[in-house]
Write a structure and sequence with these properties.
27% of the residues lie in helices and 15% in strands. It is built from 25 helices and 28 strands. The strands form seven sheets. Strands 1, 2, 3, 4, 5, 6, 7 and 8 form an eight-stranded mixed sheet that branches. α4 packs across α8, α22 packs across α24 and α22 runs antiparallel to α25. The longest helix is centred in the middle third of the chain and has 22 residues. The protein is globular, with a radius of gyration of 29 Å. It starts with 9 loop residues before the first helix and ends in a 51-residue tail after the last helix.
Length: 934
C-alpha cells in the first residue's frame, strides 16, 4: 500500500520553521573554504552529464559513479573507495573478498593527488642522508656498470640486477634477492614481488618466496621506460599517468607497499622501480608518496649507486622501522607471561569464570605469528608496556589512519586481565583532539558524571616523534597554497589503551540483544551530548560493540552483555565556534553516514544525522543475519550502503538510501517492500506482534502478500510484479504470515528443507511469521521521513525521481529467503533488557497516514516525529518499547551476504582465472598466469 503523503510539497521541505529546535535544523551558512568551489547541489544539466559519462567509466556496472573525478582532490576521498569502511569489509560493505585487480584499483584511487615528484638530489638530501662517520666513495659510484642488466625480457633482468647490487662495499650488511616466482605463504593474497633488499640473516634463498615481513627495500622491474612508468612528469595538474597500463603499474606497487606496512611495524618504506634502463625511487608514508624524477641508471650509474650505498648504511628508523616496538622472543619472561594469561581462565571470588571472550581471542592471536611488546608514553602515567600477538583488526589501505587493534596484556596489570590497544596514525590537525583526551572527558565526574557504555581510558600517547612528512613536501612544492588546500593530511603515530575488550556486534545472539545493545549505545551518545557537549559523528557497524560486563545478582557474579560505543576520534564539541571543516573530506564512514550528509559535501553533522546512522547500522545487521524477503543481499548492500553518484567530479550518496529516507520505506532491488521474518523452524513462543493490536495496524506488515509463489523452474512462477500486488486488508487473517514455496531459490543463500521433513510436492508451502522488527523499523523510518520532509530541501530532479518511484514500483513483498535453522543462542547470564528494567514502556499508537497536502496540522504532526531524532532518549524509548514486548525466539541466521559476491561489473569466481581474477585475502593459490602482472 503506497503512502500518498506529499513528499514533494514545497511548503514544508524548503526550510525549518522558526520554532524548529536547533539540534535538527539544517546547518547555518559556513565559512568559505576550498570545498565551496564544488557546488553541494546538482542541476539537471549535471545529471545529464553524469549519465553521459557512465559509458567511459573505468568501473562500469553498478559503480559507474566511481570514475576518477576531476579536481579538487578531496572529492575522491569522499567516495566509498576513499572513505573509512566497515571493519569487516574490504573496500565495500557488499564485497567481503575483493579481487586483486580491484583492490589495486581501489588503493590507487584512494591515493589520488597524494603523489609528489621531486628532483633526485632533493629526494636524497631529504630522505636518504649520508652517514656521519663514513665518507662517500664518489669515484666508485662513477665506476659502477649496470649495462649488464637486460631491459627485455623481464625475467632476464633479475640475475644481472642482483649481481650488480650484491657488492660488499656497496651493501655490506644486506643482500639483493630475486623472488619473482613464489609468493609469501603467510600472506593470503599470495602476492610476490620481483625482488628486494633484505638483511642477510633474514633473506630468502634466490628465486624463492617473497618475505613481506622481512623485506627492507622493495624492487619491482618493468621493461618499458615510458609505457609502464606509473608517473607522467609532463602533466601540470597531477603526476598520475592516464593510460590503463601505467595505472595498473601504480596500483601494483602501491599494493606491494601496503603489504610491507601490513606485515611490519613501519613509519615509511622505500621502493625502487626499474623501468628498462631507467628508474624511480618512491618513499611511502601514511600521508602520501614522494617519488624521484626518472633517471637513467645506465648513463648515470652514480645515482643508483649512491642510493644503494646510503640506504645500506641508514639506521632502522631512517629506513622506516618503528623503533618503539620490540620482538618478544620465545622462552623470555614476557613470552611466558603471555602464555600464562592465554591458558589460565580468570575467576572471581565466588569461583565464576569471567572474560573468556577476551582470553580465547588473545590465545588465538598468539598462534602463527610474531609476538610484540609495544610502548605507550602517557604524559600523566609515564611509559607503559603492552604485550600483543596478531591484530584483531587491521585497516586496509596505504594513506590514512592505518588502525590496528589488539587484545593486550598490561605488563603492570593484574593476573588474568586483558585490555584493548589501538594503534593508529591519527590526523594531527588543529581542533582535532586525541581520542584519549576525549575519553578522559567522557570518563570524568564533571557535568553529571561519567558517560556510561563508553570505553574506560587506561593510557594513551603519541609514539615518539613519528609523524608523516609527505604533506610537508607538498607544501614546499606549492608555497602559495593555503594549508587547508593540501590534499595530504598530517598523520601522527598514536596509541590508545582502554580497559574494555568488546565483542563485534555481528556476534549478537538475537535481534532483541542487537536492538538492546544499540539502544545502550544511543544512551551513551545522548549522555556524551548533554553532559560533555560532544557529538560522536562516526556511528558505524564497527564502532558499536557488545561488552560482557561483570555484575552481581543475588550474590552471584554474572556477565551482562550490553552495548559499548567506541571510536570517539572524530567526536567534536557542540560548542565549537569554528563551523568550518577540520579536515578536507566528509566526516564518518560512508556506508552509515546519513543520506543528507552524503548529499551535502560540507554538512555539519547533527544529532539527527547520528540517529539516522544508528538506523543504517541496525539495517546492516538485519539484512545480513535476519530472515527476510530480499533475494539478492549483495546487490541490496551494494546499492543501499555502497551506492554513490558523481556530479561535476564530486561524489554524492546513492539514490536508494536517500529514497528510503524520503519515502519512509526500504525496498529490495526488485522493488518490493523489505520485510523480516522469524526463521521457518524457529517460530516465536507467542504469536503477538509488538506495538499494535494486530499486524494490520502497521504499514510494514499491512503490505505483506497473501500468496507469493516464487518457486524455481517453471515459467508460471515468474509472474509480473503487478500479479503479486494484493491489498491484504481484504483478508486480515493472513497478515501475520507469508506463504512461500519451499523450493525458493535465492542465489545460493537459501537452504534445503530439513531432512526430517517428508518431501514436499511441487507447490507445498510454508508459513513465515513476520518479525516485530518490521514495526520498529517502520516507526523509525516515520521519524526519518518526517525529518527529511521538513528539513532536507528537495531538488526538482529528485522530485521527479520520487514521483516515478512511487508510481512505478510495487511496495509489496515477495519470496523470503528461507532459513531452516537459526544460529543465535540465548546469551548466557541476564538478558540485555536488564539494563532497561527501570525504563517505562511507552505505548506508541500506530502512525496515521499522512494527508495529501501539507496543512498546518500535518506540519505539526511531522515536527513532533522529526523532533524525536534530536533527542537520544526518545530514540532509546522507541527501541526498548518495541523490544520489551518481543517474544523470545532464536532469530539470528547465518550470514546471508555471499562471500563471493561481486557487483555487476566484477568477474565471478566461476569465470576463467586470469591475472584479473586472482583473489585477495583468500587461501586459493594464484594462477601462474597472474605473473604477467609484474
Amino acid at each position: 500500500m503506497a503512502d500518498n503523503s506529499p513528499i514533494w510539497s514545497s511548503g514544508a521541505s524548503s526550510c525549518a520553521s522558526p520554532d524548529t529546535p536547533p539540534e535538527i535544523r539544517t546547518s547555518p551558512p559556513r565559512t568559505p573554504s576550498p570545498r565551496n568551489e564544488t557546488p553541494s547541489r546538482r542541476s539537471s544539466v549535471d545529471q545529464d552529464d553524469y549519465a553521459a559519462s557512465q559509458s567511459t567509466s573505468e568501473f562500469g556496472g553498478q559503480h559507474d559513479g566511481l570514475a576518477v573525478p576531476y579536481r579538487p582532490s578531496y572529492l575522491l576521498k569522499d567516495s566509498p573507495v576513499g572513505k573509512k569502511t566497515y571493519h569487516n569489509s574490504a573496500t565495500f560493505a557488499s564485497v567481503q573478498e575483493p579481487l586483486i585487480h580491484n583492490r589495486r584499483r581501489d588503493i590507487r584511487l584512494s591515493m589520488s593527488n597524494k603523489i609528489i615528484i621531486i628532483p633526485y638530489d632533493d629526494f636524497m638530501a631529504t630522505f636518504v642522508p649520508p652517514p656521519a662517520a663514513e665518507a662517500e666513495p664518489s669515484e666508485r659510484f662513477a665506476d659502477l656498470d649496470f649495462t649488464a642488466i637486460k631491459t627485455k625480457p623481464e625475467n632476464a633482468m633479475y640475475d644481472p640486477l642482483t649481481q650488480a647490487f650484491n657488492q660488499d662495499w656497496l651493501i655490506p650488511n644486506d643482500v639483493a634477492v630475486a623472488t619473482p616466482s613464489k609468493p609469501d605463504p603467510s600472506v593470503k593474497s599470495k602476492q610476490k614481488i620481483d625482488g628486494g633488499l633484505y638483511r642477510r640473516q633474514d633473506a630468502p634463498e634466490p628465486m624463492s618466496e617473497t618475505r613481506w615481513s622481512a623485506i627492507e627495500l622493495s624492487i619491482e622491474c618493468k621493461t618499458l621506460d615510458t609505457q609502464q612508468d606509473p608517473l607522467d612528469e609532463t602533466k601540470s595538474d597531477t603526476p598520475e599517468a592516464d593510460s590503463q597500463l601505467r595505472k595498473d603499474v601504480l596500483g601494483q606497487i602501491m599494493c606491494y607497499a601496503v603489504l610491507v606496512f601490513d606485515e611490519q611495524w613501519r613509519t615509511h618504506h622505500f621502493t625502487l622501480l626499474i623501468l628498462g634502463g631507467k628508474a624511480r625511487i618512491f618513499r611511502w608514508d601514511r600521508s602520501g608518496v614522494v617519488a624521484t624524477s626518472k633517471f637513467d641508471y645506465i648513463e648515470e650509474p652514480w645515482k643508483l649507486g649512491r642510493f644503494l650505498w646510503r640506504f645500506a648504511r641508514m639506521t632502522p628508523a631512517q629506513r622506516g622501522h618503528d623503533t618503539s616496538v620490540t620482538r618478544v622472543l620465545p622462552q623470555s619472561a614476557y613470552h611466558k607471561l603471555m602464555l600464562a594469561h592465554a591458558e589460565t581462565p580468570a575467576e572471581t571470588d565466588d569461583g565464576t569464570i569471567v572474560g573468556e571472550h577476551a582470553r580465547l581471542k588473545f590465545k588465538d592471536s598468539l598462534e602463527g605469528g610474531a609476538l610484540w611488546c609495544l610502548k605507550v608514553d602517557d604524559k600523566e602515567c609515564g611509559t607503559r608496556y603492552f604485550l600483543v600477538g596478531k591484530p584483531q583488526f587491521k585497516a586496509k589501505g596505504l594513506a590514512g589512519r592505518a588502525t590496528r587493534t589488539y587484545i593486550a596484556i598490561d605488563t603492570e596489570g593484574k593476573a588474568g586481565e586483558f585490555v584493548y590497544l589501538k594503534d593508529a596514525w591519527r590526523v594531527a590537525h588543529n581542533r582535532i583532539e586525541q581520542e584519549g583526551n576525549i575519553l578522559k572527558k567522557l570518563n570524568d565526574d564533571s557535568n553529571g558524571g561519567p558517560v556510561e557504555f563508553v570505553p574506560t581510558l587506561r593510557c594513551h600517547g603519541d609514539v615518539d616523534d613519528q609523524v608523516t612528512v609527505s604533506q610537508d613536501i607538498w607544501g614546499r612544492m606549492h608555497p602559495e597554497a593555503k594549508p587547508e588546500e593540501c590534499p595530504l593530511k598530517t598523520h601522527r603515530h598514536y596509541r590508545l589503551v582502554v580497559n574494555e575488550v568488546g565483542i563485534p556486534m555481528r556476534e549478537f545472539s538475537s535481534v532483541q540483544e542487537l536492538v538492546g545493545c544499540l539502544a545502550l549505545c544511543m544512551r551513551a551518545h545522548g549522555q556524551a551530548y548533554r553532559r560533555k557537549g560532544l557529538i560522536h559523528r562516526d556511528i558505524s557497524a564497527g564502532n558499536v560493540l557488545i561488552y560482557p560486563k561483570k555484575t552481581v545478582v543475588n550474590g552471584k557474579t554474572l556477565e551482562l552483555r550490553g552495548g559499548l560505543l567506541t571510536d570517539w576520534e572524530l567526536a567534536k564539541s557542540v560548542h565549537d565556534d569554528d563551523d568550518g571543516p577540520r579536515q578536507p573530506d566528509r566526516t564518518g564512514t560512508w556506508q552509515f553516514m546519513s543520506a543528507s550528509a552524503l548529499q551535502e559535501l560540507d554538512k555539519r553533522i547533527l544529532v539527527p544525522d547520528d540517529m539516522e546512522s544508528f538506523f543504517h547500522v541496525l539495517l546492516y545487521f538485519a539484512i545480513r543475519y535476519v530472515t527476510h524477503n530480499c533475494l539478492d543481499v549483495g546487490r541490496f548492500m551494494d546499492q543501499y550502503f555502497d551506492g554513490c553518484q558523481r556530479y561535476d567530479g564530486a561524489f554524492y550518496g546513492g539514490k536508494e538510501k536517500l529514497l528510503a529516507m524520503r519515502l519512509g520505506k526500504v525496498t529490495t532491488p526488485r522493488g518490493y517492500l523489505l520485510v523480516f521474518f522469524f526463521p521457518r523452524s524457529n517460530p516465536p513462543l507467542q504469536p503477538q506482534i509488538t506495538g499494535s493490536e494486530n499486524v494490520a495496524s502497521h504499514p510494514s506488515t499491512r503490505e505483506v502478500n497473501d500468496q507469493a509463489d516464487v518457486s524455481a523452474g517453471d515459467g508460471d512462477a515468474h509472474q509480473s510484479d503487478e500479479a503479486h500486488c494484493q491489498d491484504v486488508e481484504e483478508d486480515p487473517r493472513e497478515e501475520s504470515t507469508l506463504v512461500l514455496d519451499t523450493e525458493e531459490r535465492s542465489t545460493g543463500n537459501s537452504q534445503e528443507p530439513a531432512a526430517s521433513q517428508p518431501p514436499s510436492p511441487r507447490h507445498a508451502q510454508v508459513q513465515l511469521q513476520p518479525h516485530p522488527l518490521n514495526e520498529l523499523l517502520a516507526e523509525y523510518l516515520s521519524y526519518l521521513r518526517a525529518y527529511y520532509t521538513l528539513y532536507v530541501p528537495l531538488e526538482q530532479k529528485e522530485l521527479e525521481n520520487l514521483r516515478n518511484h512511487q508510481l512505478n514500483r510495487s511496495l509489496t513483498t515477495q519470496g523470503a529467503i528461507i532459513r531452516d535453522e537459526a544460529v543465535g543462542d540465548k546469551a548466557q547470564g541476564p538478558n540485555v533488557l536488564q539494563y532497561f528494567r527501570d525504563d517505562p514502556v511507552v505505548e506508541t499508537p500506530p502512525v496515521p497516514p499522512a494527508s495529501t497536502e501539507i496543512s498546518e496540522a500535518e506540519k505539526a504532526r511531522l515536527v513532533v516525529l522529526a523532533e524525536k531524532l534530536a533527542n537520544q532518549e526518545d530514540m532509546v524509548r522507541l527501541l526498548i518499547t518495541h523490544v520489551k514486548a518481543w517474544p523470545e525466539a532464536p532469530d539470528r541466521v547465518p550470514d546471508q551476504l555471499p562471500p563471493d559476491y561481486r557487483p555487476d561489473n566484477e568477474p565471478t569466481l566461476q569465470s576463467k582465472r586470469t591475472r584479473d581474477t586472482v583473489q585477495l585475502e583468500t587461501e586459493e593459490p594464484a594462477s601462474k598466469r597472474s605473473r604477467s602482472l609484474r
